[in-house]
Every structure is written in structure tokens, then in C-alpha cells.
Amino acid sequence: MRIKTIAIFAFIVCNVAIADDAADAGAKLYEYFATFNEKDVHKVANTIYSTPVHIGGGSGHRVLIDPDAAVDNLTNLYEQIEAQGWVESKISDLKICLASESLALVDTRYSRIDSEGNAIPPEIRTTLYVLQKIDGAWRIVAFYGHDNDKRPACGQG
Questions:
Q1: Of the residues 64, 67, 105, 155, which has the fewest C-beta atoms closer than 10 A?
Q2: CA distances for 36 relative to 7, 9, 29, 39, 78, angstroms
Q3: Which stretches of 38-110 are DSSP H helices?
Q4: CA dihedral 74, 77, 83, 85 (to 10 degrees)
Q5: Total domains in the fold of the chain
Q6: Is there a domain that residue 10 lies in?
Q7: Smallest Cα–Cα separation from 93: which of 126, 71, 116, 62?
Q8: CATH of the domain at 38
């Protein structure tokens, strides 16, 4: 009976740790979006991304080799999206899959919002972020835009 109790306790503790890791990975995405909305390119490049960062989807792939490249990329992105009327991005939901204790996949549905509060088409955008836990903190190491109906399924091969 004692071994069964210990096994149940260990199972609960492990699942709580997993839930905490998933919540922390999700919190990093909310931090990223808040920092992105503030246009703090240096914070994104130095504390949210872990360079090199791989970006894929849509028109191809590229690698931001270091924080300076990330700052340049973000600065160019702001010019593009502000020309479309962008003032902020809002997350509608996250789907978090923990691949391991130090690797999380966070699929994010979000909208880019204009000054009138309307979503800039496409209304819903979907990006898969790959986060790695480095020195105890989640950092974005890659992200991939994808079709809204192609969300990953956790634990399925």
C-alpha cells in the first residue's frame, strides 16, 4: 500500500511540474507579445529570443544569427506591418506541447489589430513557436507561420 501511495504521489508531482513548465512556456509567449507590442526590439532580441533563431513559413526560411540581426529583422517587420495599419497583436489562444523538460512547442493563434480595433486580414494568424529552456528560462529558438487549420497534435506521431 505504501509503494502505491508513493507512486501516486510521484505521478502527481511529475504532472504538476509538467503543467508548470507548460504554463511557463505559455507565459513566455504572452511576454513576447507584450514586448513586441511595446516595440522593445532589444528586449526581444536579447531576453526572449535565443539566437540563432530560425524563422520559417510562407515565403521561405531565414536564420537570425545574433541579436543584431534580430533587431534589424524586427525593425523591418514593424515598418511592414505599420504600413498595413498595425498598432498591436493580440493572442486568442495557445496550444502548448512539451516535447521534453527543456523543449516546448507553443502554437499561437493571434490577430494583428489596427487603430480602429479591427483585425488586419487574415483575421486569425497561426504561428508555431519552438521554445527551449536555457538556464532555467524559456527562450524562443524558432518559429513557423502555418495555415490556421494545421495545428499540431501533442503526443501523436
A1: 155
A2: 43, 40, 10, 5, 9
A3: 41-43, 67-83
A4: -80
A5: 1
A6: yes
A7: 126
A8: 3.10.450.50
